[in-house]
Amino acid sequence: MKILEQYILRRVVLMFLTALLPVLAIIWTTQVLQRINLVTDSGQSVGSFMKLATMILPTLISTVLPFALVIGITQTLTTMNNDSELAVVDAAGASRSTIRRPLVLLGVGLTLFSLVMVSFVEPAMRVNVRTMISTAYADLLSSVIEEKTFRKIEEGLYVQVSQRQAGRGLKGLLIADSRDPASQMIYYAREGAVDESGKTLIMQDGEVQRKAPTGDVTVIRFDRYAFDLSDLSQERGQTRLGAKDKSLTELFDPDPMDPSYQRNPGDYVAELHRRISSALFPIAFTLISLMLCGDARSHREAHLHPMVSALIAALTVFWMHSYATSLTEQDGGFAVLLYAIPLLAGGLSLIYLMTDTRPKLPRFASRLIGLAVASARKRLGQDAGSAA
């Protein structure tokens, strides 16, 4: 690679990382905060929470990466154009491939990186996150770790513990169970304990109040009562996996006995084609960026900032791809759109680059923008004159 190509590539990579890391940190923080209840509800340690946060991070990279690449390319080339560096490159007789070649190679490299991430790394991290959350919530004792606080175990079931004791002992138990519409049950007990399997709550020296739909209340005292938690523990401890949690090989050949596949087979088809086609975003967005700012331009030429134009085009492609994914979930025949959208966007950009032409807005749109700019300048001129 030539020195000039290395110079351009180095500047683009630096700007790419500058755009990627802050945006990734912001999105990662919002995703992590949504799971802060892992600590507050289940009593997990801060170390476990940080482990969970670390596993969430790889699932966000492939989404943010293409847009950071757009920002890195457009900002670098726009700065070089404003500093007349692109004009100097043209005046020196260097071909435009000198500018395009390192960036296309970068786009191809990030495309391969994205394919590996969305195919294998992301699904593995998603499975680990789901397993960790399910394990944390599987034990009822962990769910009620905070003393003197009502905890919602599931819809219609609330538990309060006055005091935790060493081992698995509890004091001051209160359970409100309204899951059965035919009756409402309230359990009081002085002492209790959850067995080692986590499937039974043994209550001692208490009473149970049963309220019928008619309003009649029946009170029964007991010396020892076993509250069954087997269904609850099994449900809360079960890791439910969907199409997004499967690796690429599992999507190619799904297990026909998998309950999630039996419920939504269209999700597996859509997810398979979404992963492969979304990996094309980096190279497609690279070509779009080069089309919009890959050559020298006059400072007097009125045009929208290349970064804004490129981001609008990239977001349009991304939204169209997302809409095509939802269509594919309903009908697998729409899967061809998932590949056609990025390939068509990149192909049109490549045609413009090969023919050294620039995309132009329709005349009516150019006129509207020109009138808006002229009106804004007129207003700013009047305001400046009034201020003077």
UniProtKB/TrEMBL annotation:
The chain crosses the membrane at residues 12-32, 52-73, 103-121, 276-294, 306-324, 336-354. It is a multi-pass membrane protein. It is found in: Cell membrane. The keyword Nucleotide-binding does not apply. Keywords: Cell membrane, Membrane, Transmembrane, Transmembrane helix. This is LPS export ABC transporter permease LptF.
